[in-house]
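Input record (Table S2, row 337):
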Amino acid sequence: MTEERKQFIAGMPKAELHLHIEGSFEPELMFEIARRNQVEIKFDSVEEVKKAYDFSNLQDFLDIYYEGAQVLLKEQDFFDLTWAYLRRIHAQNVIHTEIFFDPQTHTDRGVPFEIVLNGITSALDKAKNELGITNRLIMCFLRHLDESEAEKTLEMALPFKDKIYGVGLDSSEMGHPPSKFQNVFAKAIKEGFVTVAHAGEEGPAQYIWEALDLLHISRLDHGNRSIDDPKLMQRLAAEKMALTVCPLSNLKLCVVDDLKNHPLRKLMQNGLKVTINSDDPAYFGGYMNENFWAIADALDLSKDELYTLLRNAFEASFVSDERKQEMIGQLDAYFEM
Ligand code: ADE
Ligand code: ZN
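Output record (zinc ion complex):
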């Protein structure tokens, strides 16, 4: 890629809609927090950690991701984690972010829900005030655990509706279909939360149908496998359902063998509202710029396609129409539209 194209992509105003805050935990910060909390980690050096980030599937990654999160204990830890992410994306011209957090990863270790939430939201508030980055926070249920556990987590979130905008579903997809969580999602909707779900990352197109029909999602996380089902693509296009696609994640988790074979363009050609996101940037080799660079290079994306991907994300964000228009205005100015 030419330096000029690289710089153009770096300068584009962006919104990120699929980011696990625990997945932005860089090894350097992990060691620092482990040291100050006097928690043992099984690696001796940052280099050794990075060497272990060689995954053959989603579960391989999740095992190491949950282990890394064990060092997070105090409110300051969650603040530092979130603030480090926000500073990085600010440098990449991300102007709005919607982040996931996995409360069960922490509450199951005895870390109070409120500690996790306060650490994350104080960093989000600071980024809004000091960097102008707007945000939404989405709480995910771990799908490898029972629905009753998700219900307990939803209960914990009820006093904090002002801070948590939506609920999502993540972790091991195969064998844990969306149907397993239909009751807790129905309750969440009744309580006023928006719903999203990871579906069709490793799992079949059938899981995407379930996420639509049973979890009543407002946005689809990943959704790659919709490419297998023309009727499903028609439905997603008709509903203008946005897909939060994560190119480097798909590559690192072997969801695609090569970014040149990524279904992104085909999904767009089928009328789907595709967006680009980083998922777990500390583990998959990059934040928003790196994802855009990689996929733009592999598929030779045109300027029009880049514009569409960015605009889709602003339109699909869970913010006010006023903020959407403001962000789209910034985008149009950048592309001289
Ligand atoms: N948790 C963090 N990243 C995830 C992913 N890509 N899929 C499912 N669960 C996750
Ligand atoms: Zn994800």
